[in-house]
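Components:
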Amino acid sequence: MPLVLDGVEIAGEIKAEVAVAVQALKERGVVPGLAVILVGSVAASEIYVRSKVKTCGELGIYSEMLTPPKTVTTDELLTMVAALNGRDDIDGILIQLPLPGHVDTKRLLEAVAPEKDVDGFHPVNVGRLQSGQPGLQPCTPAGVMEMLRRRDIPVAGKNAVVIGRSDIVGKPMAMLLLNASATVTICHSKTANLAGVTQQADILVAAIGRPGFVTEDMVKQGAVVIDVGINRVVSEDKVREFFGDDPKRQATFEKRGSVVVGDVHPEAFRASSAYTPVPGGVGALTIAMLMANTVKAAELRRG
Ligand code: GUN
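Structure:
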């Protein structure tokens, strides 16, 4: 039976350590602060942001939410970011993505002071990651590395394959694995013979945003499979296709009208030696790492 990498449990370990670090800062008169900008009302983003703000409260981190309407201009957002950059009580600034199409996302991310860039999206932090220098790193891939480290899964010398090349997950994930001395391949929608590549993976990371995309034939026997996908399946047929007659998933579907499925087909995990479930895997780590980054930013800037 493969080992289940329990993201909720690992996130709990990280958050407990963050809470201790927050107390240590408070004893020196510093309360770490996070500002989150949420533009408009995208249901998924609202859920994520609420969860981030709630976790701040649990760990003693001050948080502030800015919620401009979806008609907000790039210039108005730039003014907001500039004000947050200038505030001593704000250590981390997070702009929840995606932004409406008319907003210049790249310009906005570049406006965040690199030392407050708790998402690790600013080009300075991207460059630091690329050149192996310390900096703030994107939360989801950093969480995956933390999970591998805490569960003693070796990375050095392993073949790691990342499916997906997004700036948020795929690219930084590949860079972190490379910095940890894995041999890394990045695959994407145009990759030829994708299964042939993924079958070589000792560590397979799926981050493409397509439900059940990775099938059992794509997984090498004994691979460690990390599923970053969070996809909502809204048809009963699809739920059956992914989960058969699993009564728990059927009940979830009946209650909520949807079921969350990762990028890895549930049957594909059978070939693995260890895997992250969805839900309860990588998702929980992202917020824990955001908290860790906020405290790190506070320590570096005000500690
Ligand atoms: N939207 C989806 N994931 C993320 C993330 O990690 N950070 C931000 N800012 N927005 C996101």
